[in-house]
User: What shape does this take?
Amino acid sequence: MCNECSNENEADERWQELLKEEAARNETAYYWLSFADTEKPVGQRFTGVIVTEALGFIHAVDKTHKMGINPGGEVLGDAYIPPAGINEFKDRLLQEAELRERDLV
Assistant: This one.
């Protein structure tokens, strides 16, 4: 969770600091979160994408975890300008087939 942190307590404290920093900016955006399980064989590591609206990347990851839709593992993400129809697929785990069907990849 935190490369500079020496223990879980420090990582939790850093997570809370980042949440506060994002909240202070008070700017919401959509985030594209891509998940992978590095324990799986190459070619099978991708576990899905979640598009969500949040105050920042850390808030987006935290939100998906609290919603119970975060599949765990490694996550990469960035702000995302969603296409029309975002409500049809936001805030849920999208698999590769659906991403292709919707022309999102």
Remarks:
- The chain has three helices and three strands.
- Residues 27-101 form one domain.
- Residues 8-25 form the longest helix (18 residues).
- The first strand starts at residue 29 and ends at 36.
